Please model this.
Amino acid sequence: MSEAAKTENLVEIKHLKEYFNVNVGFFKSRPLKAVDDVSFSIKKGETLGLVGESGCGKTTVGRTILNLYKPTAGEIWYDGKLIKTDADIKEFRKKATMVFQDPYSSLNPRMTVSDIIGEPLDIHNLYNTKEERRERILELMGYVGLNSEHASRYAHEFSGGQRQRIGIARSLAVNPEFIVCDEPVSALDVSIQAQVINMFDELQDKLGLTYLFIAHDLLVVRHISDRIAVMYLGKLVELADANEIYDHPIHPYSKSLLSSVPVPDPKIARANKRIILSGDIPSPLNAPSGCPFRTRCPHATPECAESMPELKELSSRHFVACHHPENIA
Ligand SMILES: Nc1ncnc2c1ncn2[C@@H]1O[C@H](COP(=O)(O)OP(=O)(O)O)[C@@H](O)[C@H]1O
Ligand code: SF4
Ligand SMILES: [Mg+2]
Model:
């Protein structure tokens, strides 16, 4: 989609929170703040990449946006409308869907490809005749590079990459406008990751889709994303255009994520010295006070323990949540 067309927000989340009550002993439970006051928007036709270490809350953001989890607090707006009532959610589900991380467990191995892809058509009554259903399934298979001979075969007969294609075709069955792609290539061989990502890119152009594209690896999202948001312990710490965040990361956490990306050119790799973080990512049940990153941050000051830094626009379209961005070389 052209830049000019990407002006309207399709998805907007405001101060989204998702707390899970977890047991921490006999009859005792505490809220686990999986997503804690996250706000961002995605324009029509845009891809927002969402990255961060395992457990930082990426999947929960995706599932909560789609109302697969009821938000603890905050608002989800879609196409200018607040999603609030059950009727809103039902309507929204026809337009927004998810592609899952694991193509091995997300498809029933004993169903045929045709039945897997046809199931959402059945659930939402999206055809009038059997022939129409068959044609639509074949069309969806064509979108993801599967051919008609695959229709009667079982999911377990396929490789990981092909299974992910089946999963994507299934997600496309309802004719969605917005797709949460939850680490859709993480479980695949590196050799086929690029093919599947290119397919997402082509489908976006062909069908005018908007993506929230989740990954833990910045390299994976760089080329497909227009903008990238970095999450740490349930919070957004940096948000900027993809090239900007890649070339000029500001938050110390984003810097460390980027410095662990392998660079093929040894000269660049040497200049890009590796930042190894000390300590493990804390549990969201015992998140540090103030800045969530302070227990691992080489620039932390006493102020960092006192208050959570707001996400501020430091340069055009580049937002960072840090008290001391000027100290970070
Ligand atoms: N249904 C759930 N119940 C309780 N805790 C959960 C649930 N889902 C996720 N969590 C916790 O929320 C945090 C964020 O998880 P998740 O969103 O899956 O992270 P990511 O996708 O970034 O790996 C983790 O600490 C995880 O253990
Ligand atoms: S607010 Fe403080 S602890 Fe957090 S990233 Fe910035 S300097 Fe580090
Ligand atoms: Mg996840």
Remarks:
- The pocket of magnesium ion (ligand 3) is lined by residues 58-59, 183 (CB under 6 Å).
